[in-house]
Amino acid sequence: MPLKDRMLNDLWYKNAIVYCLSVGTFMDANGDGVGDFQGLLRRLDYLQGLGVTTIWLMPFQPSPGRDNGYDISDYYNVDPKYGTLGDFSEFTHACRERGLRVMIDLVVNHTSDQHPWFREARSDPDSQYRDWYVWSDKQPPNAKDGVVFPGVQKSTWTFDKQAKRWYFHRFYEFQPDLNTANPYVRAELLKIMGFWIQLGVSGFRMDAVPFVIATKGPKVREPVEQYDMLREFREFLQWRQGDAIILAEANVLPDTDLEYFGDEGERLQMMFNFQLNQNTFYALATGDTAPLKKALTATRPRPATAQWGVFLRNHDELDLGRLTPEQREAVFAAFAPEPDMQLYERGIRRRLAPMLAGDRRRLELAYSLMLTLPGTPVFRYGDEIGMGDDLRLPERECARTPMQWSTEPEGGFTKHAKPPCRVITGGAYGFERVNVASQRRDPNSFLNWMERMIRMRREVPEISWGDFDVLRTSRSDVLALRFDWRNNSVLCLHNFGAEACTVKFRSGCNEPGQNRLINLLSDEHSEEQDDGRHAVVLEPYGYRWYRVGGLDYLLRRSEI
Ligand code: GLC
């Protein structure tokens, strides 16, 4: 094996299973109604049993909490609601004991307006912190442009009475943007990374990356991304800890992907694949897989060390802004027909299970797909049991309710009688019906299905590491992908149609006698027909995972 290939084996994030959670809504150990690190500690064996390899924690630092913690007022601490730095290091230690990696959110595009840096910057013109933010003497002409939360956020510049000047905020007005052109700000940003690395984290989910690296200021009409900054972050991280990574939140067009990864993989290791995400939902809504196939091809180019983060839903709205208006309307019509289910003129705020009407066949299709798209799957807590949402809560809060553990009051999340964030109660998605304890006892539950799928996914590294081909098939509502890696091939079929169908295709394997497809999830294998093609009958929303060629992966592994 070439030396470079051997070194690639070290990239832990390539074949990881990421699970995102917020400490505050996962498990409350001290009964005050808010989840905490001690509670999370007690649930680590559950996560390990599920097959998760990496936990991504949403912001847990001190914060006024006006944007779910994405408004940080102290980068070097734990919000007392969740515990102490001591609890955090207990947590990372317990993760390490179990071979689990920890990633945390890195929110450095902006601070809270309550951060001491901003308080000093606004009150003292001579403070060194004044230039850590972005100011203007007059209201900039484009102050109404570029808001991220249309309908809720009015502008990107706000007048500050104390400073008697305007400050820039890409997001809400209580989130003043940091001036990342200032080298002291960038040095601080590295210090923040270094601090958490020292406490045992393996990487960062970097928030709002295109905005972090954009030029900012009253004269900036079209922000320009300063991609070299990414290399600076990456180099620092790797000097401190060789295997630490950055996973970028960057909803960008495919032609800039390589700017983020770097042509040689010298910038960020991972990015969320928003193209696949949006086109997956279009395919789920309409059965038309053509745009998804296009997105797969468009996001194919990437350096060998880079990896996509593949996800379905996250803590934000499902952003459909990159679809055409007609495509977006089709997804709205299928999954968010009520205006109240939509958000920010571009997205859907619901959780996945209610979007798919709780239909087990469609849920399995969606997660089977997520597990077999090129990249590393990223779950959101509660996905594994099909949790729902509470649309009475404002904006994105509806999909951030506490984890449903059991049929005990408040779903076993807390002993507190009236926690500030209430568990979903009653109805099809209430904790009485949807919870971990009940599903654990039922071998056919969604939870146990998910656990089996995750286990199999870990045993199919071709998906994470390999090259892929979108196969031609006889049907437009079926996606057929083949992954090739080190003389092994895996082939996955997904039927987005509501009808059963027979799909015909060539596996692409030309070795005589090797064109058998071994089903990885059941005993039903597929032999090639006389014309060299396969003909597989798929149920409505059916899916298959096959190994091509009949030889067991482990037998072929001798090369490794
Ligand atoms: C990111 C987060 C989102 C947050 C925003 C501002 O987009 O995912 O939740 O509101 O950044 O920090």
From TrEMBL:
Signal sequence span per UniProt?
Answer: none
What's one GO MF term for it? alpha-amylase activity
Residues covered by the Glycosyl hydrolase family 13 catalytic domain: 20-422
Q: Which UniProt keywords apply?
A: Glycosidase, Hydrolase, Isomerase
Q: What is its EC number?
A: 3.2.1.1, 5.4.99.16
Q: Which InterPro entries match?
A: GH, GH13_cat_dom, Glyco_hydro_b, O16G_dom_2, SupH-like_C
Q: Which Gene3D superfamilies match?
A: Glycosidases, Golgi alpha-mannosidase II, Oligo-1,6-glucosidase, Domain 2
Pfam families under this entry?
Alpha-amylase, SupH-like_C
Write down the PANTHER family for this protein, in alphabetical order.
ALPHA-AMYLASE FAMILY MEMBER, MALTOSE ALPHA-D-GLUCOSYLTRANSFERASE
What protein is this chain from?
Answer: Maltose alpha-D-glucosyltransferase/alpha-amylase
Q: What is the lineage of its organism?
A: Bacteria, Pseudomonadati, Pseudomonadota, Betaproteobacteria, Burkholderiales
